[in-house]
Structure to design on (212 residues):
């Protein structure tokens, strides 16, 4: 019979403590239930504290995709798989260089914090008036390279694309207000055509997801 390692036990304790603190930060927000950018800044800071415990997330436990899985292949490790389906979901993502995505939203808040590797985030705003159904135009407003010491966060309607740069796989925390698979209303926007797509249905490739 296999037994849980000491590092796995300590990791779980630190993950649970961080998520408990994050839940408290979220409860301290407006009575409307909407998350503010100020709250996300506090959540990001708490997740960055967890990222400083790099020894709790060794490559032996969170291996990157193999070269044979292709450019931009990803493995998504769920760190709190037994939490309620409406609770924040914490993943540790390892993505091979070369991955790129359409600009997309999340329909929930999101925080990305790096342990290692670089992920370029291009952040957009809609420049159309929404009058043409199924179409949108975007204006890029900034770029953020997420890497150790530089994080990024998003409100539900924020739009961004990701581009994994560098020559090593990423190992990044991705924290969402709800599990990714429940976010059925997400949209992606084709920059070339302006077409609005259902992001989960058309763009979420079967990057391997692993309970951790």
């Amino acid at each position: 019979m296999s037994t849980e390692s000491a590092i796995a036990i300590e990791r779980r304790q630190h993950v649970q403590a961080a998520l408990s603190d994050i839940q408290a930060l979220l409860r301290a927000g407006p009575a409307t239930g909407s998350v503010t950018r100020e709250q996300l800044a506090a959540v990001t800071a708490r997740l960055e504290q967890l990222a400083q415990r790099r020894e709790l997330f060794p490559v032996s436990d969170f291996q990157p995709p193999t070269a044979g899985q292709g450019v931009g292949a990803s493995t998504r490790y769920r760190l709190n798989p037994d939490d309620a389906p409406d609770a924040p979901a914490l993943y540790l993502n390892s993505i091979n260089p070369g991955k790129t995505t359409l600009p997309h939203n999340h329909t929930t808040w999101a925080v990305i914090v790096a342990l290692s590797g670089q992920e370029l985030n291009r952040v957009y705003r809609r420049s159309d008036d929404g009058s043409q159904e199924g179409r949108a135009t975007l204006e890029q407003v900034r770029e953020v390279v997420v890497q150790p010491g530089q994080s990024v966060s998003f409100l539900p309607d924020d739009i961004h694309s990701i581009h994994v740069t560098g020559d090593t796989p990423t190992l990044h925390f991705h924290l969402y207000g709800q599990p990714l698979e429940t976010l059925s209303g997400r949209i992606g926007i084709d920059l070339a055509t302006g077409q609005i797509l259902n992001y989960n249905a058309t763009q979420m490739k079967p990057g391997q997801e692993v309970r951790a």
In short: The longest strand covers residues 118-126.
